[in-house]
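Entry 14. Ran structure prediction on the chain below.
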Amino acid sequence: MEADAGATIEVTWGLVDPGTLARVVVVSPHFDDAVLGATHLIAGHPGTTVITVLGGRPPKYPEEPTSWDACGGFRAGDDVVALRREEDRSAMAFLDATPVWLEFPDHQYLAKSERPRPAEVAPALERAIAAASPTSVFLPMGLANPDHALTHDAGLLARTALAETDSPPAWFCYEDHGYKHIPGILACRVAKLLKSGLWPTPAVVPIDPDMVRKRAAIEFYKSQLPPLQRDHVLDERLDANVPEQYWRFEPPPQGWEMLADTI
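Output, structure tokens:
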């Protein structure tokens, strides 16, 4: 869509009113995902609440650790979630944030038929978000990993429910670290959201872009570092200073709805 030659260009598109970020909630699939994808946001807004959706113990750990857990140094009989909660608690204290853990287990411990569905997760997530009384909520884009997709979809259901409250928060997404580099995966999510009417648009979110502090926060997740190096080339991504990007959900500008039909 091209602007008319004489039309006034709206130069403030993308800017976020400071009051919108007075009380921030970041929703994280796993213990480390918020720090990997949104440290600059969390560090720039002290007091942020970080809700980890897949923060619960499984009904039973496997007899032999999963590949991810084994790479992180765990052995049979270890309480993986207990240690990872302590890692998360330390990272959140370092960033002056508050951790909240929901009791859903990581998909790696469950058969596909046993994994929770978005409609089962959404009520607990909605309650956790409401308890924080946020002015803004940041969901993951929900890319590739089934737990990330689950968290994103449950977040959208919670968004619909919270829209009926007196002061609904503003909603954003942050890009999932690592997964966003899979060819086409981020573009596919943006296209789906655009067609759904949510119109994700990159937002100008004030942050604290301190890479030294981000690296220090990631270091608290010691059991996650070896598999992140192995499967997500963590050092290369950090050395490249891959930026964090935040997308705001808003209805399309009046008359622009036809743009979605071009996809």
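The chain has nine helices and seven strands. Will compare against last week's run tomorrow.
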